[in-house]
Amino acid sequence: MTTPAQQIADVFxxxxxxxxxxxxxxxxxxxxxxxxxxxxLGVRAAGAVGAVDDRAEPQVxxxxxxxxxxxxxxxxxxxxxxTESRLSGRPLSGIAFDGRAARxxxxxxxxxxxxxxxxxxxxxxxxxxxxxxGALVLLSSAADAPLSEEKAALAQSLADFTAQILVRxxxxxxxxxxSSQLEYALNSRVIIxxxxxxxxxxxxxxxDGAFALLRGHARAHRRLLTDxxxxxxxxxxDLG
Length: 240
Prior knowledge:
The chain is α+β, with helices and mostly antiparallel strands. The protein has helices spanning about 5-15, 25-40, 65-75, 80-90, 100-105, 110-115, 150-205, 205-220, 225-235; strands spanning about 45-50, 60, 90-95, 120-130, 130-140.
């Protein structure tokens, strides 16, 4: 029989990529967080949103199809506990949807969540230090027990752990992109220098003169300088 402690450990292992330790893509990571949270935290459903890059559209996931659609609409409306928690970086608890206050606060979100059968919610930011990169939303009905302080603390730990993975993956991807860009720039520089040497030798030019010839041809024919240089080095183009 699986103990509660083992259950918790299994969820953290799953979020980290399973026993293989393979980093998860953002959509799958958020989906696992949403899928694991209800059983572990004793709620009906869960939704998650993540947005590490401010220039990119936030991604969402839900433990049920209706919750996922709700999260997508909440992004467009800029409403709901998840949106507020993500933007403020603060947890929200004890949210009741079956009252006037919630309808005034979230006029589009509240009727939709009630239609799905959820009357209460809590939201926890996905945070790393002072930065919030998403939110975990827990949804329950009037028949469910209120979220305990212990479960709330565990929910925040899950959210923070997920945030660390999101940021780590984003930084890794950024590092790979930068490495590729530097490699391309270095290779371009090498091929251009080789082309300059070929032209300087062939036409008795200085290196500056050879570069001017190379650049002038690229501009006149609206081609990339690197492509012209490759043709020169490969013997496919003579700029004499």
